[in-house]
Recover the amino acids of this structure.
């Protein structure tokens, strides 16, 4: 599996005028969050203050992991970044533009694979092309590239039900990458997988991400996964979710099987564990 | 020796089990009627039913055709009426508020009770039977299709929304395929009801159809003929049901 094989397809996609225009404000953060809160059922008796206020800036091309206990609003944060939900208060920008809804420059991978059982693997991967009206021939070529990259080449015309959990999630990654999004939003994408598949897929994702140079926001409850993939790890507090700490991961890239064995990795992991389990203690 | 070779006799036996049980029932029936000398007007033996069926073959054939026509035509009309309504109810809140109570009220009326009235209004033709079939078929299809449109998982909707998909795109790409298994469930319920509806219509007033034939033959103590007609109705019901099932297996491959 060669990641480099995909590079020409991405270069071609990058020359599309719409995409070129989008990349103009290079200095603008991929995601900028200022004073954002989210309250569900606002004004009603059972209103739940799920998130915030949160301030956050994600540099283009960086990989940011968010960890936190369940129910801390980390998935809410991702839904806000995706434009699927609106914040109750505060301001959000995407590449310098106000974030007021979903964008074709965003690709999402959910915890569940969300593949349509009535379509083949290839048709599922092609979904963004159909919905966004991308040129069919190019998109098909790209879909085949992505399937080859993720080892699903021989399963293009299979039904998703015939794939293992890990393969389904690979297909979901292919679909998220099809339209060459600037921003990848990953909502516990390995959460439903077994430990071995999870580690294998995270390393694969790390490699692909580094090759593509896109921005990624990963929501996870797995500390090791957060460190292994991220340039930064944000630690969230329980509800209402706030960012308690922002840890830089100064581990060398490319990350590989040996990364988790590095002393520095263990140091960062221990620091994060302290922050999560002993929040009262000063850093 | 392969595993398949070992497994084959077992599966063959399992396949034969259903037909064998039918054969057994028929044999027990035949033996019991003969042993206890049950009169034919009370309970005819299978052999007597078969005899009546071959004696009355042309009559049975034409009346089967009449009932089949009423059933299938009524079913198709119900299908044509319920699908647009299901779409309207699934996607328009005012339509749902306006139509659902009316339809629910209509569904709550026992159709058997309506049959004499419908016959009074529409006369003795095949039309009152078709209308009864439409009435009994309509609701199961409608309810199941509406449920099908709404059975779409939220994550799939999120995925479509994240791609800025329009409502028509979501309908075409997501709601229609998601509703297919429900649609076929509704059709299978409806087609079984349809046969019953047609017979009820024929019981009330008719000059043809298997329901009419059953009524006539029992009143003249031609019980074997009545049994033959009932057997044909059963076969019709099963064939129609499995016809839809076959279509479902061809179209809805993913849920099998």
């Amino acid at each position: 599996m060669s990641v480099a094989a995909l590079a020409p397809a991405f270069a071609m996609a990058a020359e599309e005028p719409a995409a070129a225009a989008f990349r103009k404000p290079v200095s603008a953060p991929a995601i900028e969050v200022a004073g954002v809160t989210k309250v569900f059922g606002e004004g009603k008796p059972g209103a739940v203050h799920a998130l915030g206020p949160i301030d956050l800036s994600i540099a283009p091309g960086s990989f940011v992991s968010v960890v936190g206990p369940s129910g801390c609003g980390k998935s809410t944060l991702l839904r806000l970044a995706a434009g699927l939900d609106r914040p109750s208060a505060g301001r959000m920008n995407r590449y310098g533009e106000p974030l007021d809804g979903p964008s074709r420059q965003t690709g999402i991978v959910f915890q569940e694979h969300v593949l349509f059982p009535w379509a083949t693997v290839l048709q599922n991967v092609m979904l963004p092309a159909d919905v966004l009206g991308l040129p069919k021939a190019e998109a098909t070529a790209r879909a085949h590239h992505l399937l080859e990259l993720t080892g699903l080449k021989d399963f293009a015309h299979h039904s998703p039900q015939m794939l293992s959990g890990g393969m389904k999630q690979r297909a979901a990654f292919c679909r998220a990458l099809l339209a060459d999004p600037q921003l990848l939003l990953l909502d516990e994408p390995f959460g439903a997988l077994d430990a071995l598949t999870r580690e294998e897929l995270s390393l694969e994702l790390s490699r692909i991400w580094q090759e593509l140079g896109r921005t990624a926001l990963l929501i996870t409850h797995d500390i090791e996964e957060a460190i292994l993939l991220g340039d930064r790890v944000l630690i969230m507090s329980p509800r209402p979710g706030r960012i308690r700490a922002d840890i830089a991961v100064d581990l060398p890239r490319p990350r590989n099987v040996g990364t988790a064995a590095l002393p520095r990795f263990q140091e960062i992991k221990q620091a994060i564990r302290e922050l999560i389990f002993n929040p009262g203690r000063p850093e | 020796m392969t595993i398949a070779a070992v497994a084959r006799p077992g599966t063959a036996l399992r396949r034969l089990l259903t037909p064998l049980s039918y054969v057994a029932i028929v044999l027990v029936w035949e033996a019991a009627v003969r042993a206890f000398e049950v009169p034919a007007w009370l309970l005819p033996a299978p052999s007597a039913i078969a005899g009546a069926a071959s004696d009355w073959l042309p009559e049975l054939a034409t009346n089967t055709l009449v009932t089949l026509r009423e059933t299938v035509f009524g079913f198709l009309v119900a299908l044509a009426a319920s699908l647009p309504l299901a779409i309207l109810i699934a996607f328009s809140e005012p339509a749902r508020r306006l139509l659902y109570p009316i339809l629910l009220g209509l569904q709550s009326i026992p159709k058997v009770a309506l049959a004499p009235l419908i016959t009074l209004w529409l006369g003795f033709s095949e039309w009152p039977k078709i209308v009864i079939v439409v009435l009994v078929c309509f609701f199961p299809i409608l309810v199941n299709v509406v449920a099908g449109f709404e059975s779409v998982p939220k994550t799939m909707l999120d995925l479509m929304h994240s791609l800025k998909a329009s409502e028509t795109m979501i309908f075409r790409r997501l709601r229609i395929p998601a509703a297919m298994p429900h649609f076929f469930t509704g059709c299978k319920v409806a087609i079984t009801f349809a046969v019953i509806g047609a017979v009820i219509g024929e019981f009330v007033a008719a000059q043809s159809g298997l329901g009419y034939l059953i009524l006539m033959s029992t009143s003249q103590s031609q019980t074997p003929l009545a049994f033959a007609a009932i057997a044909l109705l059963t076969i019709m019901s099963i064939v129609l049901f499995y016809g839809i099932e076959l279509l479902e297996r061809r179209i809805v491959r993913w849920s099998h």
User: Anything to note?
Assistant: Strands of chain A lie at 31-40, 48-58, 63-67, 89-94, 97-98, 106-109, 183-187, 215-220, 232-236, 243-248. The first helix of chain A runs from residue 7 to 14.
